[in-house]
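Support reply, case 0932

Customer input (verbatim):
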Amino acid sequence: MRLFLPLFFFLFSLSISAQTSTTEPPRLVIGIMVDGMQQKHIDLLWNYLDPNGLKRIIEKGATCQNVSYNIVSAGNASDIATVMTGSIPYYNGIAGNNYFDRSSSEIQSVIQDENQVGIGTKQTLSAHNLLSSTIVDELILANPTKSKAYSVAIGAEEAIMLGGHTAKSVAWIDDVNFKWITTGYYSNGLSRWADEMNINGSFQKYANRQWEPLFNINTYFNRPNKEDKRTGFQYDPSSKKTKTSSVSILKNTPSANGLVAELGLKILTEEQLGTDIYPDMLTLQFTVRTPNEKTPALQSAEKEDMYLRLDKDIQNLLQKVDVKVGLDKTLIFLFSNQTGVHSPAELGENKIPAGYFNARRSMALLSTYLMAVYGQEKWIEGYYGKNIFLNKSKIEEKKINAREMQQNIADFMLEFEGIQAAFPASQILNMGGNVNSEMVRIRNSTHKTSVGDIIITLLPGWIEVDDKNNPVGESNAIVSYTPLYFFGWQVKPQKIVTSYQTTDIAPTLSRILNVPMPNASIGKPIEFAP
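Our regenerated output:
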């Protein structure tokens, strides 16, 4: 027994040591969001992808095959916030890219913040409406002054939601003046590396690059949307979206992805991310959307080319990360937003019921109806994103039963083409039930600070557009799935068929990084095969 006990404790200590070494967190986490990416597109292009790009992530990592958004599609801000907080708009406050502000009776950006200053821009933006912590925040709070986080994106909403509250710096593309811009909300402002690209002309070089097919145009599945007899297609990223617009098409060309990749790699190298025992985080947003895109389907040579060129950018990113940090010390997770598989126009052409819902006409008719029933007053204060806002002060002044009016409006809205259902907001906010039901997804997608008095839903195949014909959330599927991949670090090749939700991504990263879950997280960690 005397000989056995020392041997037992020696072996036990070795076991503990082995466990500690195998659970050492990654030195670097890279989060990649690709706007518009769909698994179906990747499957169609599989044989054309490079073995060292997207294929490498998918084949050598973990593919989560059944990951869904448990919120209604309302824009990238809410989709990314759901991923990064492990929570839903009901708790994190981000119900869409925009919301109707009752105090000003105007539609505001969810990242608008007049208390901030713009850097390189007049925009005053921040993450102040993001009401919960993110995985980035929890990492920084766990290792203050040690861990570092940066976010680089094409759009402002994406950059800020990926960066959370505590990133050192975030940057996004100014597609009017062709430079990186940011907000003073973050401690480092505009990173010196973004500023360097603005000054030395490298940003402008990307904006001046002509976009032509990467390969012979005859090797593409589809014809170009904008054919060029010599090359197949040709775009100048600096050209304007419309004759009257100051905004260019830059954000929907490979040049935008190239800019994000270059700045991301510059920050990785110069800030020495992943080079000590304290994990760092770099979040990047790319896109596969093309100029004047009319359908999310893979139906143009331009869209195919966006994927193929992005594949090259990701291949280069993986190679550089392997040299600088080591892929065995780096965890990469890649996901997309909610996108419709087909556009209403495409469905209509194939005799499938579908359409675009613009609220302007229906609100005018609703206003006329309310005047006929309740008197000649302005009863509707505003509308945005399937939310109808009533003039509460006028309702109180006239001593009208607000609940009865809301129900009357809900019943009236059912008469409009494209509307599936309508509910008083109180009915939605107090709802329970099956977590996978459409009603619960609607509740998940509302927040008390931005919810209207009546909420409508649309029929399958219909999407809402604003007065500029921009989608207000572009997936109306009852269940909306996203591709999700984990690669590097200790992740072994595997396909995970268990159903998960996007709110499970942040808890997974929390467990891997050994930091607390975000403070509004409702998800559970994804289980990987050992």
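We compared this against your earlier run and they match. Two observations from our side: Residues 355-464 form a domain with the Gyrase A; domain 2 fold (CATH 3.30.1360.150). Confidence is low (pLDDT under 50) at residues 1-21. Please reopen the case if you see a mismatch on your end.
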